């Protein structure tokens, strides 16, 4: 079975919008289009539910139920308990709040491990713990390939390490790290794992319980939803960390790491992300429980992405005037493709726009990774990122446009 692209694209109003529908969208790593299910829920909430939720009158009760629905259904899809999932303004802010909690829990002499493969959001807040006297160790990438070697992590782990923070996928390298194996190593060393899933989740919501991650974070606005950060945290760890919310919310796991009140409408609209997955499952006759239906849909998404990605990788790796970052095999990576050019990457992105290609150039907040690979962050990379709603024709047009620009 193949992904029905006509049906899939029909779930995104952006493709019917003048100025968008005729363009090839290759900056999905910066934020995906929003599904109509999310838009409809957001519109309904602002139209008919925009009151303080959880009060004893109908509009308020409906508002609260829709917020609860989002948490319940997303948690079930991700394989975690309902109260182990929380929302925040962004993944960056969720990480900063977590860092403050760990800062209060850790003891002198404790260490954490970060990588230089990360987006700054999952490394900067943790690195700042060095200012409080904690040791920060860096798990470094291969300077040629951007790969993270698990053996290098093993050399950093000891009884001082309390936390290891790493990405499921780097937003410039694109390689899928073996999260389950890495988390098992971390757990065996007596430490906790914090996984940045922002660049992976758009290509398939993960089974977090199977991965074994103590903390997993991703962004709803990159997974066809509203601008919210979503975090899961295992209950034992979440209740052990100091409460970062209001004192009267200390007993509520999903409120402990949300100092500000939640965005009611966006939380409620996040249920539309599950609606979208369920719509794809129903249309493609994928059956079973929530996890089985998700797995079937993710298989369809990833098969389509892999089919489109390999020709682009082959084209770029065959050129002798650019440097393709990461693996040249579409298997084991996502369609987030960074390319070093002789000149300023942003200039190439500007030249692609009149040719019908929306792409980005810059450091993408991954300047540590670029520097480690010998790339000047000021020059940056051209990033070409797509997801499952991209068509073969759009990739063909991209390659044609690259021929003209490069």
Write structural notes for this entry:
- The chain has 15 helices and 13 strands.
- It has helices at 5-9, 36-48, 58-78, 91-105, 124-127, 150-156, 179-188, 208-211, 235-240, 264-269, 271-283, 290-318, 345-352, 367-372, 392-405, and strands spanning 24-25, 85-88, 111-115, 135-139, 161-167, 192-196, 215-219, 229-233, 323-324, 336-340, 357-358, 360-362, 381-385.
- The strands form three sheets. The protein has a seven-stranded mixed beta sheet with strand order 2-8-7-6-5-3-4, with helices on both faces. A four-stranded antiparallel beta sheet has the order 9-10-13-12.
- Strand 3 (111-115), helix 5 and strand 4 (135-139) form a beta-alpha-beta unit.
- The chain is α/β, with parallel strands linked by helices.
- Helix content is 40%, strand content 14%.
- The chain folds into two domains: 5-34 and 289-401, Aspartate Aminotransferase, domain 1; 42-274, Type I PLP-dependent aspartate aminotransferase-like (Major domain) (Aspartate Aminotransferase, domain 2, 3-Layer(aba) Sandwich), CATH 3.40.640.
- The model has no long low-confidence stretch (mean pLDDT 97).
